[in-house]
Write a structure and sequence with these properties.
heterodimer; A: about 110 residues; mainly beta; 7-stranded mixed beta sheet; 4-stranded antiparallel beta sheet; about 0% helix; B: about 120 residues; about 50% strand
């Protein structure tokens, strides 16, 4: 079974530029999550989708971050414009309704904003 | 809101020895899940072990086992026969049983484990 796929793996941009990350969850997983992990900290949830609907986006900075999950499969997370403090690893995870709460993570995208 | 605390920012262990990583959590719920994830330098989060709160028996996965003390809200991870490949950041995480937004994981701040040859 293929795992969660993410791209790109690394991205370096200048502040005020825009950037987009892509995630493909494990096949059949209805729930998809985007986490932000700042160096030295645990991951923090940005947004949670169930199928193509948003379940929780309370910690998403909506003035600059947006996310979508078209057709309930792949998802894209966008930052526009980026700030220095957005430098972090962005992790995508997915879970099925029957996986007893277990979330499976992708390899992450490391973003550096200069 | 639930909180997860890992009070040991760094730990070290000699290869082949045993080490225990600590985790405490705060919740008013009676049923929930607890997890230990491992994050090597590649930054991929890898599930190590999972515990359902309604189960009294401690979970075990090969060299990894937990000591789950529900009343004390404590969930420690024991790694036996430590190997060089065990070196990583270890995160304790909590998840409510409830559906919807409560499915998110709440993570601790992590413990960096070094394995000494």
């Amino acid at each position: 079974e293929a795992g969660v796929a993410q791209s790109p793996r690394y991205k370096i941009i200048e502040k005020r530029q825009s950037v987009a990350f892509w995630c493909n969850p494990i096949s059949g997983h209805a729930t998809l999550y985007w986490y932000q992990q700042i160096l030295g900290q645990g991951p923090k949830l940005l947004i949670q989708f169930q199928n193509n609907g948003v379940v929780d986006d309370s910690q998403l900075p909506k003035d600059r971050f947006s996310a979508e999950r078209l057709k309930g499969v792949d998802s894209t997370l966008k930052i526009q414009p980026a700030k220095l403090e957005d430098s972090a690893v962005y992790l995508c995870a997915s879970s099925s309704l029957s996986s007893v709460g277990t979330q499976y993570f992708g390899p992450g995208t490391r973003l550096l904003v200069l | 809101a639930q909180t997860v605390t890992q009070s040991q920012p760094e730990m070290s262990v000699q290869e082949a020895e045993t080490v225990t990583l600590s985790c405490t959590y705060d919740t008013s719920e009676s049923d929930y899940y607890l997890f230990w994830y491992k994050q090597p330098p590649s930054r991929q989060m890898i599930l190590v072990i999972r515990q359902e709160a309604y189960k009294q028996q401690n979970a075990t996965e090969n060299r990894f086992s937990v000591n789950f003390q529900k009343a004390a809200k404590s969930f420690s991870l024991k790694i036996s026969d430590s190997q060089l490949g065990d070196a990583a950041m270890y995160f304790c995480a909590y998840r409510s049983v409830s559906s919807g937004s409560a499915r998110q994981l709440t993570f601790g701040s992590g413990t960096q484990l070094t394995v000494l040859p």
